[in-house]
Amino acid sequence: MDDATQIPLPLAELHAELGGKMVPFAGYAMPVQYPAGVMAEHLHVRTRAGLFDVSHMGQVIVAGDGAASALERLMPVNVVGLAEGRQRYGLLTLPDGGVADDLMVANRGDHLLLVVNGAMKHLDMDILRAGLPDHSVELHDDRALLALQGPSAEAALEGLVPGTAAMRFMDVGGFEWQEADLWISRSGYTGEDGFEISVPIEVADAFARALLSHEDVLPIGLGARDSLRLEAGMPLYGQDLTPEISPVEAGLNWAIGKVRRPGGARAGGFTGEDRILHELTEGPERIRVGLRPDGRAPMRMGVMLYETEDAVAPVGTVTSGGFGPSVGAPIAMGYVPAGTQAGVTLYGDVRGRRMPVTVADLPFHQPRYKR
Amino acid sequence: MKYTEEHEWLDEADGIISVGITEHAAKQLGDVVFIELPDVGREITKGEEIVVIESVKAASDILAPLDGEITEVNEALIDNPGLVNEDAEAAWFFRMTTSTPEEIDAMMDEDAYKEFAE
């Protein structure tokens, strides 16, 4: 363990007070649920607002002349074209075209702010430092990260931090709360309108309590975070995205800027370009799709998919699956051969029995962002 | 009411035993979203997996508490698995007969189970 993984989550005391059930995640003790339970927490975020502690995630500042251009060598993303005060989804890629991590990158004027997965942040730092030898790359373990998500998020945050309600989806900016500097983006991982708020550790507890004092805001654990993002069709690194899966297979072509694709002004020139450019032109062999089990039994990660009830060789795998509280039925996502159309029936092996499952378009829940 | 170390409750009346899971177990599982029940008439062996319970968190099983035969299953749970979370001690999963009724007497009573579950 290095220094970072020994730092307790800044809100540990608050989680205990709120009755959070703690589980190990990404090297931290994280709340998987509170007394309300996963189902109620999920539905609360869809109808009111929820507060998530995601302080395990890595907040990385990349600075120096030409930082955006340099980052484009590590990501198949249009970073140079990202306007100041804006954020976009991005991917760090590997030499063979797989995904090292997915992230958010924001243009904060004199620097870029990257928010990366907690379990991957130290590997990401290695990739960033090796790939950006002439730039400063710093992991900010001195800050907590909170996500406030749901239809009431705007009102709850505006009451504490005036000016945030005017932000549009994927805007980023610096704000103040009781003299502490906040880095706020209008984004999230739930398919709801909301914000992600970086706050200095010293004031994280007080700021979280201030948000929770709003009548519509409840604390939400990792369990509901997972079911919310699954309904929103968002991939989870480690399950739906791995070092073997390319961004094209994952259906993340939209995240690869036009200028980085074949024919674009800055086409290629990123880690893993051979495979990724090839798949952009020729198409991938497998694709990430939504899956709706016909029955009520959830199909979870690892369930093998078959073309028929008695086929011997599987054609695909479920990479995330469970019950969608807002959908009211089991939902999943996974990889199937390219060309598999929505509406096709496959069979998932659940406890030795082949259960029908229908290929479906993602997302299962239409996002409600403030564009 | 008697209890097993697998967090099941057994309620015997006139040789027919109703089986469910305890409130403690239901709490641990979280919101139940799917239940698969055995076929009526099935001969079961103690320790065999006979019910699948899926919660929002994970899948788990109920093991047969005794040797015997399934006589009835609670179809209401198939349509509304959440009944288990609402009132675990009312939400019976199946009813059975057994060839070894004396084993029930040896199971934990409520006080012993409470101590065990703590």
TrEMBL record, chain A:
The keyword Transferase applies. Keywords: Aminotransferase, Methyltransferase, Transferase. The gene is gcvT_2. InterPro entries: GcvT, GcvT/YgfZ/DmdA, GcvT/YgfZ_C, GcvT_C, GCVT_N, TrmE/GcvT-like. Belongs to the GcvT family. It is an enzyme of class 2 (transferase). Substrate binds at residue 196. GO terms for cellular component: glycine cleavage complex. This is aminomethyltransferase. It catalyses: N(6)-[(R)-S(8)-aminomethyldihydrolipoyl]-L-lysyl-[protein] + (6S)-5,6,7,8-tetrahydrofolate = N(6)-[(R)-dihydrolipoyl]-L-lysyl-[protein] + (6R)-5,10-methylene-5,6,7,8-tetrahydrofolate + NH4(+). One of its GO terms (biological process) is methylation. It comes from Jannaschia seosinensis. PANTHER family: AMINOMETHYLTRANSFERASE, AMINOMETHYLTRANSFERASE, MITOCHONDRIAL. Its EC number is 2.1.2.10. Gene3D superfamilies: Aminomethyltransferase beta-barrel domains, Aminomethyltransferase fragment, Probable tRNA modification gtpase trme, domain 1.
From TrEMBL, chain B:
Keywords: Lipoyl. The modification N6-lipoyllysine is found at residue 57. InterPro entries: 2-oxoA_DH_lipoyl-BS, Biotin_lipoyl, GCV_H, GCV_H/Fam206, GCV_H_sub, Single_hybrid_motif. One of its GO terms (cellular component) is cytosol. It comes from the Bacteria. Residues 16-97 form the Lipoyl-binding domain. One of its GO terms (biological process) is protein lipoylation. Binds 1 lipoyl cofactor covalently. Its cofactor is (R)-lipoate. Gene3D superfamilies: 2.40.50.100. It holds the Pfam family GCV_H. The glycine cleavage system catalyzes the degradation of glycine. The H protein shuttles the methylamine group of glycine from the P protein to the T protein. Belongs to the GcvH family. The glycine cleavage system is composed of four proteins: P, T, L and H. This is Glycine cleavage system H protein. It comes from Jannaschia seosinensis.
